[in-house]
Amino acid sequence: MVAWLQNNPKININSVGFIIFFLLTCGAILITAPNIQNSKITLSFNGNEALNHVSVQISLNTTHYRTPGTKGRQDCANYFVNEFQDISLNITQIFHNFSVNSISCQNVLFKMNENKNNIVILAAHYDSRAKATKDPDLNLRNNPIPGANDGASGCAVLLELAERLYQRLNTLGCQLWFLFFDAEDQGEDSGGYGLNGWDWCEGSNKFVEDLSLFYDSTEETFECMILLDMVGGTNLQFIAEQYSTSSLLDELFEIGRQLGYTYQFPLLRTSSSITDDHIAFIDRGIPSADLIINFWDNPLWPYHHTLNDDINSISSYSLEVTGKTLEQFIYNNYLIPESLKYSSNAPWLFDMNAMDSTIVILLLVMGFILALLGLGSYLIKQRKDKKSQVQIDSSTKKA
What is the CATH number of the domain that holds 309? Predict the structure, then answer.
């Protein structure tokens, strides 16, 4: 670079600034696009089946829906049990009981392929918010929300995915955990608490505190944890969640993009740090990623913590996008022998915050402005040099 600048003395600092900004921008984009290619495999995840799972969850108890400590919460856990028993009676099920402010809560865990020692966790929360604290009608804000997207959608994807993966379980080189969290969604937002005095992610924090109870640390290890939160809404578009392990999240984005889901997994993406159920696992040293949308400032899905988070805000296509991306991820990395041909980011230890699409666009604009300034400065200097040369030539002729 230095030699090039020395050989091009008319290149000024504005042009150099543009080059630097351009390289930084290209680097930011390349970081979010790992060089991977999906294994050729037929995916069977069905978005309509997942949509039915959403519908069942929100209809189990329309008085309290799935609020912690209610019959609706218990009915939903029983629904999960029945669905997994329909897949196979040999699937291990574990109930993790705990309490928050004297209210009984329950995480539910299902294990598949326990003969494998490397564990992949697929997770979602199943509780619904006790109060619609962001509903536009202030008179309705004390009512519980259906929680069709937040978080019945993630649970629905897990239920459908479990059935599809079980069909190929004998050829998968990992143990699978399907983990449903209670007590995630009752913390304080701009409209108040879901349940007074509760924090966010109570269930996942309790689960990780007791993690040693659920596996043999002398023989079993955790490969990764993938969290699904609000993955079934209309106009689905995921963000670059910043607490997530970037190498894992970037791989999921690239898998989705290669499946053709370029809108749902944009190359230039909004980034934000979200307090969610994956954080406790990250703090435990387990690579984790949160597939989540912009729920706080999104005119295309403005139903967060409102009564309109119902079945009408859900898209079977969004559910299928999420489910097929996860299904492809599992087959890419763990289906034998196809996975042997796949170049993964595993073990997903690399972690770097991604640039927000707004920052990338700002860099491009700044670079463009610098380029214009550099070009203008260059043309003015050229004109002055040419004028000076004309004066020199004129003086020479007179002499």
Answer: 3.40.630.10
Residues 366, 337 share a domain: no
Residues in the chain, total: 399
Type of residue found at 391 = Q
Burial grade of 170 (CB within 10 A; 0-12, 13-18, 19 or more): exposed
Cα separation, 188 vs 197, whole angstroms: 8
Distance, in Å, from the CA atom of 295 to the CA atom of 153, rounded to the nearest integer, reads 14
Its sign, for the CA torsion 386, 391, 392, 396, is: positive
pLDDT in tens, 313-367: 999 999 999 999 999 999 999 999 888 788 899 999 989 875 544 555 565 666 6
One domain for residues 56 and 25: no
Q: Report which of 79, 64, 100 is spatially closest to residue 203, judged by C-alpha positions.
A: 100
Q: Measure the CA–CA gap between 340 and 39, rounded to whole angstroms.
A: 10
Query: 298 with 152, same domain?
Result: yes
Query: Cα(279)–Cα(287) distance, rounded to whole angstroms?
Result: 10
- Give, to the nearest 10 degrees, the angle between helix 316-334 and helix 246-258: 110
pLDDT tens track for 22-74: 555 545 444 445 678 999 999 999 999 999 999 999 999 999 999 999 999 99
Give yes or no for residue 258 having a pLDDT over 90.
yes
Identify whether residues 330 and 377 lie together within a single domain: no
Integer Cα distance of 15 and 28 in angstroms = 20
**Mean pLDDT over all residues of the chain?**
89
Calpha distance 93→75 (Å, rounded): 16
Q: Give, as one character, the DSSP assignment of residue 39.
A: -
Expressed as residue numbers, the domain containing 220 is 47-341
Tell me how many degrees the CA angle 254-25-272 measures, rounded to the nearest 5: 60
pLDDT tier, 5 (very low <50, low <70, confident <90, very high otherwise): very low
DSSP labels, 283-352: HTT--EEEEEB--SS-TTS--TTSTT-SGGGB-HHHHHHHHHHHHHHHHHHHBTTGGGG----TT-----
Peptide bond into 146 cis (omega under 30): no
Contacts of 376 (CB under 8 A, 6+ apart): none
pTM of the model: 0.83
